[in-house]
Amino acid sequence: MKTLILAAIRCSLMFLVTGSLFSARPAQAYTVTLRQIGSNVMATGSGPINLTGLTFRGNFFSNPVIAAQIGLIRTGPAAPGLLDGYRGCTGPASFGSGGFFNTTVGSGNPVGIGPIQFIFGGIFEPIITVPQGYVSGSALSSSATWNNATFASLGVIPGTYEWTWGTGTGLANQNFTLIIGRAGVPDGGSTVSLLGCALLGLVAMRRKLDC
Predict the structure, then answer these.
(1) How many Å apart are CA 24 and CA 108, to the nearest integer?
(2) Is residue 192 part of a domain?
(3) CA-to-CA distance for 142 and 85, rounded, in angstroms?
(4) Is residue 38 part of a domain?
(5) In a domain, 45, yes or no
(6) Tens digit of each residue's pLDDT (9 = 90 or more) over 48-105
(7) What is the pLDDT of residues 62-73, one digit of tens each?
(8) Is 97 helix (H, G, I), strand (E, B) or coil?
């Protein structure tokens, strides 16, 4: 009887571990991922943005662009458009040494972050840019591609960069994250391999326990 109970507990733990490997990630704040896709560099962004804690700065006419040396990235349709700008976030001043590179193609919502120079004083500060009339907390999705480019040619440094704002009250989606992956490394390949090995081990354990 004791052996049967122990086997049941072990089987339950096995299913809990398996379930955790495949559980869906919770929704997260707006995140842009920059990847090397063949001979091109592609940025994809998604998630909501909570404007609480930011101050409306005005409208800006801009196009999708990347400029690592000043911490600027904007994605969306390749044609220039009118955006709403919000000030009040803090974060890295740069994510590399690259200059200005306009996107080749893009789609979705025009979204970005980057410094805007004040007319008086010549002060730069990061500005969150969103579609004109954007409603705080609404879902956003955007992309941009730089053809015939690499991380090196764009002058970006792989890593995770985050800009935050708000009063520290714990409100969700008060951050903008840029993830620059490793050029030439397939996304998720190692994760799939680890999952496969784990499942084989769990199956073998289950057979041994006859559960």
Answers:
(1) 24
(2) no
(3) 17
(4) yes
(5) yes
(6) 999 999 999 888 888 899 999 999 999 999 887 889 999 999 999 999 999 999 998 9
(7) 889 999 999 999
(8) coil
Tokens 């025009």 found at: 110
The domain total for the chain is 1
Where does residue 53 fall: left (phi above 0), alpha (psi -120 to 50 degrees), or beta otherwise?
A: left
Whole-angstrom distance, CA of residue 74 vs CA of residue 43? 9
As given in the structure block, the two tokens for residue 191 are 């994760």
Give the H/E segment covering residue 82: strand 81-87
> Are 102 and 108 a contacting pair, CB within 8 Å?
no
Structural domain includes residue 24: no
Give the range of the structural domain holding residue 77, as residue numbers without chain letter. 31-186
148, two tokens: 């015939």
pTM here? 0.72
**Beta-bridge partner residues of 28:** none
